[in-house]
Amino acid sequence: MRSSPRSALPARGLRAMVVLALAAGLATTAHSTPAHAADTPTAPAARHTASAPALAAKPYMGWSSWSMQSSKYPGLNPDGDYSYLTEANVLEQADALAAKLKKYGYEYVNIDAGWWRDNTWTPEFDTYARQKPDPVRFPHGMKAVADHIHAKGLKAGIYLPVGLEKEAYHDGTSPIWNAPGCTTADIVYSDLRTTNGWDSAYKLDFSRPCTQKYIDSQAQLLADWGYDFLKLDGVGPGSFKSGDNYDNVPDVAAWHQAIAATGRPIHLELSWSLDIQHAADWKKYSNGWRVDTDVECYCNTLVSWENSVDDRFADAPAWTRHAGPGGWNDLDSLDVGNGTMDGLTKAERQSYATLWAIAKSPLYTGDDLTRLDSYGVSLLTNREVIAVDQGDGPPAQPVTASDPQQVWAAKNPDGSYTVALFNLADAPAAVTADWSALGFTGQAAVRDLWNHENLGDHRNRITEALPAHGSRLFTVTPRRSSHTVHYTGYEAEAPANTLSGNASVADCAACSGGKKAGNLYLGGKLTITNVVVDKPGTYQVKVTYVSGDARSALISANGGGAVRHTFASTGDWGTTGTVSVPVTLKAGSNTLTIDSGSDYAPDIDRIDVPQSS
Asked: Of 170, 292, 345, 349, which is most buried, counting CB atoms within 10 Å of its CB?
């Protein structure tokens, strides 16, 4: 996966996380005087009440400034890189959001990196080392901006990088608000070690009592301004950084505590490419986390398919199990509304929106809302697709191998299935969703969600011819006459199986039999013997595997031709995943071989074979 070039900005993969900081209103510009809005009690209206909806009960929806800030598209940044971010532009987008998208659920207006820096990226800070709005970009201050956003019935979001920005250190002499005797020298390590994805800040030392006070002061300032959302960017482990200097879990915990102390509900979103090994920490302390790098291409459009839109299909599956009410996997901005400026074909725009919806990612666009094209409006305002993202069902995940043609699905609380077909190849191809991969056979009613069309009953499967990078999105509802698929399971470690090359049996706490077949690399293979079926046919064989990264394997039956399939990462080497692959079997006893070939294959827990094709 690629990092977007953004050397000029101390805050890089910020954009996607910023979107969650929008709900209250920014108070006036932070002045370089001892006075602080927090000297007066927080208004009762800003406090959370039992009747208020829980934060992030559903993925948030809205708009973020970063995509247009970062683009080289003609006219977007006339005063230099990232110069798009101004008070006037934010308010124009807020007005357009209220007029065009609010009624569909879009509500956050998120201000990304740069609000406290001028067009040469020189920062402004108040007396207490807190970011202060640039007077040219935001002449009326951040509270006035939030007030305008709120007056439209929307929520306001804002952005900060993690750590103490180097320019705010001020030789260690800046006092900390509401912390007598504390200065910036008292909140960082004495060796001034750096942190965040750009090493643009000094790492905060939370063993020192003054440090939490600094985070408290930042949170109180944002609350007094009236913000509802904070995107905290450059967070590690993640942001392409690891090691002790980049462990910002204490920072995130401190922000969680500080936000709670303000009494104002503020959505905390983390960015970017967060380390999945710390998923429990992100879930404990925040409301959302960017699972990948920036979606923008940093080119003359907003995004491109190859830059990182397509990366999400490989990177999202490992995170699926971590999403739910209170915290969601953030796939970044959804830039499908501006046509040529987006840099995508119509098929790519629909596939982009389809993945975001089925993954239950926050739906926030970075498009220019004042010039949405008709197709973009149809994508952003399709109520049936929005309902997939906002509904009670779980996020979808791949039910087939992560090959160029793949199927994602989720079972909904009402017994129906959300099913998406994707052709990620560069040429047209047919894609089939086989009902047995969903766990049933027989008749099912199919509804096309993008086209609002009932397609009637389909028996056992549906096949669609898709363009390059194309997709379809369905609700599939089994009829009463359908049947549950019954399987026969075969453990990879069974003594009758054959292991070749480096392959060996290893312990596996997450695996069904407590063991797995591993070391399937550079010719290592597993052959499962005596796979019995009653009649010949092509069977959707479920493969349960473990893989800390995406890997592929050659799968064959009875010594016949092998087909290479790709298996998405399960997130680590202690978690299993299951997908179906088609295998042609003969009546009676079969052998099924999983071969690494000249590559590295995942570890195999077991296979489950349907009792009928």
From this structure: 349
Residue 10: pLDDT band (50, 70, 90) is very low
Residue-range domain boundaries for the chain = 15-330, 397-484, 487-610
Both structure tokens of 83: 């110069």
> Is-contact 396 358, C-beta < 8 A?
yes
**327 DSSP β-pair partners:** 324
- Dump pLDDT digits (tens) for 170-223: 999 999 999 999 999 999 999 999 999 999 999 999 999 999 999 999 999 999
**Do residues 8 and 229 touch, judged by C-beta distance below 8 A?**
no
Q: Do domains 15-330 and 397-484 have the same CATH topology?
A: no
What pTM does this model have? 0.92
* Encoded tokens for 231: 């995107």
CA angle 118, 175, 226 (to 5 degrees): 55
**Buried b or exposed e, range 377-386, using 16+ CB within 10 angstroms:** ebbbbbeebb
CATH class for the domain made up of 397-484: mainly beta
DSSP state at residue 106: -
Residues 545 and 96: their CA atoms lie apart, in Å, by 47
Instruction: Count CA atoms within 13 Å of residue 189 on its CB side.
Output: 12
C-alpha torsion 143→288→61→336, nearest 10: 110
Report the alpha-carbon distance of residue 575 to residue 226 in Å, rounded: 41
How far is Cα 566 from Cα 577, in angstroms, rounded to an integer? Answer: 13
Question: In which residue are the tokens 């209170």 written?
Answer: 326
**DSSP strand pairing (108-110 vs 61-64):** parallel
Question: What is the overall mean pLDDT for the chain?
Answer: 92
Mean pLDDT across 7-33? 34
Question: Which class for 116: exposed (0-12), middle (13-18), buried (19 or more C-beta within 10 A)?
Answer: buried
Q: How confident is the model at residue 54 (pLDDT cuts 50, 70, 90)?
A: confident
**Contact status, residue 512 vs residue 546, Cβ threshold 8 Å:** no
CATH class assigned to 487-610: mainly beta
Q: In angstroms, rounded to a whole number, what is the distance separating the alpha carbons of residues 256 and 288?
A: 12
Task: Give the pLDDT of residue 424.
Answer: 98
The answer for residues whose C-beta is within 8 angstroms of residue 104's C-beta and 6 or more apart is 61, 380, 381, 383, 386
CA distance to 283, 351, 357, 438, 561, per residue, from 389 (Å)? 19, 14, 4, 20, 40
Give, in words, the CATH class of 15-330.
alpha beta
- 446-478 pLDDT, tens digit each: 999 999 999 999 999 999 999 999 999 999 999
